Amino acid sequence: MTTTFPDRLSVHPDSPHHDAALLERAIGIRLDGVEYTNVEEYCISEGWIRVTIGKAVDRRGRPLTIQRKGKVEPFFKE
After folding, report:
1. Which of 2, 32, 76, 77 can bridge 26 by disulfide, Cβ–Cβ 3.0-4.6 Å?
2. How far apart are alpha carbons 68 and 45 in whole angstroms?
3. Residue 18 belongs to what domain range?
4. Is residue 36 part of a domain?
5. Is residue 72 assigned to a domain?
């Protein structure tokens, strides 16, 4: 398996940035040194993550998210 991360990754299967093989591994995301467990999508080059905000969902049933900016550091939890 590869040890590098793509620039952008999403957990939604219908997204063009979805990689099921990579998501099978335990991935962690740090933003400015703080680990987040509710990340839906990230982009390393642009420096942002999308995190869920509670249990609210949109009209398609997806969780509502907010974008947070900073230094993004993905890592394997293994």
Report:
1. 77
2. 14
3. 8-76
4. yes
5. yes
